[in-house]
Amino acid sequence: MFSSIAGRSVLVTGGTRGIGRGIAQVFALAGANVLITGRSVEPGLACARELTALGGGRVGFVPADAATLAGNRAAVAAAVEQHGGLDVLCANAGIFPERPLAELTEDDVEQVLATNVKGTVFAVQAAIEPLTRSGRGRVILTSSITGPITGSPGWSHYGASKAAQLGFMRTAAIELAPHRITVNAVLPGNIVTEGLAELGAGYRASMEAAIPMRRLGEAEDIGHAALFFATDQAAYITGQALVVDGGQVLPESLAAMAAG
Ligand code: NAP
Question: pTM of the entire structure?
Answer without folding.
Answer: 0.98
